[in-house]
Amino acid sequence: MTIRLSGLSKTFGDFTAVHPLDLTIPEGSFFALLGASGCGKTTTLRMIAGLEEPTAGSVLLGDDDITALPPHRRPVNTVFQNYALFPHLDVQDNIAFGLRRRGIKSVKKQVDEMLELVELGGMARRRPRQLSGGQQQRVALARALINQPRVLLLDEPLGALDLKLRRQMQLELKRIQTEIGITFVHVTHDQEEAMTMADTVAVMRGGRVEQLAEPAELYENPRTAFVANFLGTSNLITAEVTDADADELRIEAAGSTLRLPAARGNGAAADPGGQLLVGVRPEKITLTHGADAEKVAVGRNRLNGRIVDASYLGVSTQYLIDTPACPEFAVYEQNVGRDPRLVPGTDVVLHWDPAHTFGLDAGQD
Ligand code: ATP
Asked: Where does the record place the ABC transporter domain (predicted)?
């Protein structure tokens, strides 16, 4: 079911946790609210669930305004981080709880279906304390889904799991959402988690949505410095426009001339003399040194620098490079051998396709 938030806001005393928010979450999507602690994502989720009364605005499910409905009358279920399973009930009775409360007696078929969906067949008679954290989370999920909600809300449901299990459950949740096709709204502060699972992500900051986009767009073309830095390393440098035409800006950063496609300027200064920030993701950059440095293709953005640190990270090496534009320009290079290809102290040329450069307004905090 499509969820529409219209001017939805929440204040606690004189503190505004959520500024008036307009947001449409399409039916059947896996939607993530992503942001640092305190940015208002849980409050937003709780207003959708009916657990928090909005200060202003409305929540629509499909065409129905549900703002005034109590939680149990909404076709919405929530899974919390602290599973909240009943310790004295076994797995099947935990899962059946919602149906029995509604007076439904023959629950076996539906419970079995849920056990299969969350891959807990064979565990039906265990108590929660006899389950691992990941298994308990699956029970909590089954218990919410057996009520056949039209929307499932997930509030940091994987927060208590160790990293490996978290990664596994992220894929599981995505599989389950695809299988049942209802709308999932997932709250997390973990950008990798949001990007793994969600088809659309709203990055929140200070009670506002800073950018709403699919994961690749957020990463490749962030609209603000906050989003650029929240989703990885962005190598932001200050630059000045020297020359521009309809397709491209030529900009100068610490003595180097760089090119920026006009379409990736994000509304930053585009006239000669204007200041802007430009960024490029670390894995988009190639490092060349020695005689090969002379052969860097014309038309690529290039900076000169010296390696100050090389950290072996298994899959890749992270180089930090002192350049006139930035003292710690980060570059990730895929590892082929055991040791980093280049050592600290090496003079290098950093170069990349201008199409990977993004521009941002220089006047942001
Ligand atoms: P976290 O990841 O830490 O849960 P969050 O992004 O989900 O953070 P919220 O729980 O939505 O953030 O809280 C947003 C802000 O509103 C916080 O500054 C919080 O302290 C404040 N807040 C939340 N609930 C209340 C309340 N009942 N009374 C007063 N302030 C509150």
From this structure: 3-231
pLDDT band at 364 (very low <50, low <70, confident <90, very high): confident
CA distance 78 to 71: 10
What ligand 1 atom has the least distance to the C-alpha of 52? 27
| Burial (0-12, 13-18, 19+ Cβ within 10 Å), 87 | exposed
Nearest CA to ligand 1 atom 5: 38
Contact 186, 34 (CB under 8 A): no
- Short-list 134, 145, 54, CA closest to 98: 145
Q: How much is the pLDDT for 177?
A: 95
* pLDDT of 294 higher than 90: no
**pLDDT value, residue 350:** 96
CA 243 remoteness from chain centre:
35
Residue 20 to residue 332: CA distance in whole angstroms: 39
Q: What is the pTM of this model?
A: 0.91
Residue 273 Cα distances to 155, 243, 267, 313, angstroms: 46, 8, 15, 40
CA of 205 to the centre of ligand 1 (A): 12
The pLDDT tens digits for 309-352 are 999 999 999 999 999 999 999 999 999 888 889 999 999 999 99
The question of ipTM being above 0.90 is answered as: yes
Which helix or strand (DSSP H or E) is residue 118 part of?
Answer: none
- Are 67 and 78 in contact by the 8 Å Cβ rule? The answer is no
Dist. CA 88–CA 85, nearest whole Å: 9
The helix/strand/coil state of 228 is helix
Contact 358, 264 (CB under 8 A): yes
Q: Which domains does the chain have, with CATH numbers?
A: 3-228 (3.40.50.300), 233-361 (2.40.50.100)
Q: In this structure, which residue's CA is closest to atom 21 in ligand 1?
A: 17
Ligand 1 contact via 205 beta carbon (within 6 Å)? no
Q: What's the whole-number average pLDDT of the chain?
A: 93
What's the gap between Cα 259 and its chain centre? 29
